[in-house]
Amino acid sequence: MEKKILIIEEDSQRCAKLLQFFGSYFSVTSYNNGLQGLISAIEWRPNVVIINHSLIDVNSIELCRQIRQKFQTIIIIIGKPLPEDQIIKYFEAGADDVVMNPISYPVLLCKIKVLLDLVAMKRSGEEEVIQFGKLKMNRNNYKVYHGKKELNFTKKEFAILWILAKKQDVVVTREELLKVVWSYEHLEDDRMIDTHLNRIRKKLKQNEVNLAIKTVWGIGYKLQNEEVDVVESIGIPAESQK
């Protein structure tokens, strides 16, 4: 089945270029109005939504959030360079990538293909639910629970935490996180890894989750069960605590 891309872009010239380029690879439609774009996204269910962050009629961050809440799709934000705090807001709203001018359409196509491949891998029958201690993650609906309490993570945070939880106590390199969560083109700019990791750590602490993301200097990170570590540190076997 042919993949579908929805473009929400007010600049008619850029929109025409996007339609012409991606029309060779996907079924593509476009809107220059954010509200109409949202309605189309809900009804048409595209595989990818490309949104220009400079929309006038709607708040593009809120538009991104609304689309993410309605259904699962790949969301890419494009446009002029943004400060770091604005980029973070888009990721928190559910964006999969933020691509700033000057935009290379072939590189953007590569990013989209990588993200589509990740979605296909997720649906290919791989493990969909994993558990680490009391933390349970479901990749079908991006739900995370600690016991019976649901925790809220952005899609990027979920992807990072999933990798760390899946490898349980094994060191995950920064490069590995970058290759899986982002596309290969981001390998030279990995500051966002630290930003997302710090946010995950904060949420785990706020929700009293006894897991910690440990930094293994010069190598990467691993997820550890702090509850087990505390029990073992005072010389009491973990089994006797049950």
Describe the model.
The chain is α/β, with parallel strands linked by helices. Helices cover about 45% and strands about 20% of the residues. It contains nine helices and twelve strands. The protein has helices at about 10-20, 35-45, 60-70, 85-90, 105-120, 155-165, 175-180, 190-205, 225-235; strands at about 5-10, 25-30, 50, 75-80, 95-100, 130, 135-140, 145, 150, 170-175, 210-215, 220-225. The strands form three sheets. A five-stranded parallel β-sheet has the order 2-1-3-4-5, with helices on both faces. Strands 6-7-8-9 form a four-stranded antiparallel β-sheet, with helices on one face. The chain has a three-stranded antiparallel β-sheet with strand order 10-12-11. β1, α1 (about 10-20) and β2 form a beta-alpha-beta unit. The longest helix is centred in the middle third of the chain and has 18 residues, at about 105-120. The radius of gyration is 20 Å and the shape is elongated. The N and C termini lie far apart (about 50 Å). Mean pLDDT is about 85; it is low at about 185-190 and about 230-240.
